[in-house]
Prior knowledge:
Dihydrofolate Reductase, subunit A, two-stranded antiparallel ribbon
Amino acid sequence: MIAIIVAMDIDNLIGKNNTLPWYYPDDLAYFKKITTGKTVLMGRKTFESIISRNKKPLPNRKNIVLTSNLQFQYSGVEVIHDGNAYLKQTKEDVFVIGGKQVYELALPYAEQLYITRINKKYEGDTYFPLFQLEQFQLIQKEEQGDLCFCVYQRKI
Ligand SMILES: NC(=O)c1ccc[n+]([C@@H]2O[C@H](COP(=O)([O-])OP(=O)(O)OC[C@H]3O[C@@H](n4cnc5c(N)ncnc54)[C@H](OP(=O)(O)O)[C@@H]3O)[C@@H](O)[C@H]2O)c1
């Protein structure tokens, strides 16, 4: 099963200068709770953003990085070069954790969307790709201050 997990503001903004435009400890805790013990797939830029923040790959998760660079390697990380082939054939439960390019690639395969909606407007440079939300049904919603933790399931 392929799931996407993302936090976005009211304009679907997700990033700024290859980092998050905001700091919400509650959202980071939610991300950790949902993805721990799972496989997480990310683009090379998001991976580098995580390394510059945490100095290591995400702990207690199988980290997979998508890159076109055949030389790319990092201790404790699996590297793939063909995202479509991986998403088509994987039997694992995979959480796609960004960024924009990898969300775009994964959206057609995604059965579930974990969207943290931030009820504010931020400055930034990277937006979640346009997609058809009507293909998904809201199955869970929990509000916490400015945050709304929404889970959507693909209808068909
Ligand atoms: N708000 C959130 O929840 C959230 C979550 C994650 C990330 N973000 C933000 O999103 C931004 C990064 O997004 P982004 O779109 O710029 O970068 P990205 O998707 O993280 O990474 C892009 C890189 O992934 C590789 N890639 C993508 N598609 C590929 C394909 N089909 N085949 C092979 N390699 C492929 C390429 O790496 P190479 O150049 O090495 O070939 C490409 O440069 C940052 O600001 C980050 O903070 C936000």
